[in-house]
Structures are given as C-alpha cells and as structure tokens.
Amino acid sequence: MAVVKANAYGHGAIETSRTLIRHGVTRLAVFSTEEGVTLRQAGITVPIVVLGPIFHEQFGDLFAHQLTPVVSDPSMVPTLAQAAASRATPYPIHLKIETGMGRLGLTQDELKTLFNSHQFPSSLQLEGLMTHLADADGSNPDATEQQISRFNEAAKIVLENGFRVPLVHVSNSGGAVRFRSTHFSLVRPGIMLYGYHTLPGTVEAPGLRPVLSLKTCVAQLRTIQPGETVSYNRTFTAKRLTRIAVLPIGYAGGLSRHLSNRGSVLIRGRRAPIAGLVCMDMILADITAIPGVIVGDEVVLIGQQENEHITARDIAEWTGTISYEVLCAISPQIPRIYHSS
Fold first, then answer.
1. Tens-digit pLDDT profile for residues 232-263
2. Which sequence positions are flagged as catalytic?
3. What's the CATH number where 131 sits?
4. What number of other Cβ atoms are within 10 A of residue 116's Cβ?
5. Residue 102: pLDDT above 90?
C-alpha cells in the first residue's frame, strides 16, 4: 500500500499514483479525505485508505468517493456506523491501534471494550487493522519490538471475538526493511518509494535512487566589487571581485531560509555557494569560480549535474531537518515534469 500523502512527498500525488499503479501497486494511502478526493477526481480507482483522522463533516465525501477510513478514536465508531446504516452493504474501515507512537489509535482497553461487549456495528466491515511504528529507524530495536508485541496482543483480541481481518499492516519504510515480523498482509512504504531512507548506519539499506530533481535557471548575472553586499540585511559581503547569479526560486518555492549563506547549487557541473539571505522568490549564488556561466544556464538544486550531485538529504543536513521535510516543502506551484523510464 503505497503512501502518497503530502502530494506524494512533494512529487505530485496524481502522476506518482498513476505510475505506481502501472507498476503493480493495488492500494494507496493518503492522509486526508481531501487528498483522496483529489485522486478520485483524477480517475484513480484503486482502493484508497485515509490514514488521518476523520470527522462527521467528511462522511459525505468519504462515501461518495469510496474512500476507506482509518478509525483511530472510539467515539467515531458509532458515529460512522450510523452514517453508514442506510447503505446496502457494510462500509469497510480500518482500525488503528495505539502501541507506542502516542498519537492516534485505540488503546488496548478501548479495543477490549469495543469487541468484548459485542459493540462492533453491523453497518461497518472491519477490513483492516493497523498501527504505526515510532522508532523503526532508530538505533535500538527494543521499542519497536515492544510495539510489535502490543499490536499482536491487540490482533489476538480481535481474532478471539470472531473477526477475520484481511488487511493487517504495521510496517512503514524502515519497518519493512528491518522487522520482517511486521510484514503481515500489507506494508506501507513512504519515503523509500521516493529514493530516501533514515535507517541507522548499522542497517544495510536497500539500493535506492532519488526520484526527483529540482531545477531552475540563471535569470541574471552581475559583478560586485569587494565590500559590496547582496540580498536582504546585507548578510553577504564580497571579499573580492565577485560574480553573482540570480536564480528565480526562494522560500515560497520550498527552499528553506536556513539555506541563507549555507549550502550550494549546481551550475555547469560545479557547486556554487548560496550568497546572502534566501528571498521569497529568489536566491543568489556565488559563481566567481565557475567560468562561462550565461543567463539561461540550468541550475540544479536537488539532483545531478555532470559528476556532482545534491540530494534532499544534503539539504536536510545543511538546514537541520530531514529529507522528508525538504521534499514535502517543494511548493505545489512549482511545475512538475515527468519522464517515463
């Protein structure tokens, strides 16, 4: 079950979903009802599971677009059941169990109350049972093993009450690689679909290649004298005769302001440091050491150019975050161009 939430981690949910389906993926997962509706309106017909919380106001869209909700709060069970009561067949849902993430999910006691008192409504079909691993990419596996144990206890409660759940899923990307006991009937890869991982160095990572490149081009060139400054608040001062390339992308496009005077871009196969503060729609690069740059030259912010490359992980290290955030931050307004392989 491929996770395509957050605009497929910045890659574009519709085209990414279509590509995954062409390659044999038969289920998708999103965070919100709105994300699911967007995929349905694009003609995507495979089952779509909504991982995030659901609210009464969303039931109409949920039913109309045949989206499968994950129920994580016990109060939603009777509310959803009542809304589904008029339907010809039971409506499929997945139940989420809280095993140690400390976010969404039914506790063991809430699960026991739901099943031991025979309160599970007939208008709903328990299609799936799930949890989410909090530390599958951590250096110590103990916490994850505890979560697996708690989930197995929860699954036993469900089975002992006569329910046979066809779709059981626990593993995120890290869990799928490290903990085979969590594979069950589905796994939910997210970040690894896009070529990145956060596994510790002690774990052998699968061979991954980043899917996305982020590119712009040189909009203008200027030469500044020693002592002159560029960008807001004059945080970059030239120490020599300096060539500056103006690039039309900034924090509105998804480049963190923490890249100001830090990090690089690729121009003509070489790294050019970012000079001055990142602006809303522009950044500046010091190209003094790169001869021959002209207006219109391709600039790579994420990706490869000749023998050099910059990854989302590199940007994450420069800005003190993770590759997930770097990718998800790329504005939906940035055009996506897809290349078939």
1. 999 999 999 999 999 999 999 999 999 999 99
2. 5, 232
3. 3.20.20.10
4. 11
5. yes
**Could you tell me where the DSSP H helices lie in 92-202?**
108-116, 142-160, 173-178
225-238 in b/e form (b: 16+ CB < 10 A) is eeeeebbeeeebeb
Tell me how far CA of residue 303 lies from CA of 154, 191, 200, 208, 211, in angstroms: 44, 17, 23, 14, 9
Rg of the chain taking only CA atoms, in angstroms: 24
Residue type, 100: G
Q: Distance (Å, rounded) from C-alpha 5 to C-alpha 341?
A: 23
| Residue corresponding to tokens 């302001």 | 257
Together in a domain, 159 and 221: no
Residue 338 falls inside a structural domain = no
pLDDT of residue 201 exceeding 80:
yes
Averaged pLDDT for residues 107-121 = 89
Total of domains in the chain:
2
Whole-Å CA distances, 24 to 1, 7, 151, 174: 11, 20, 28, 21
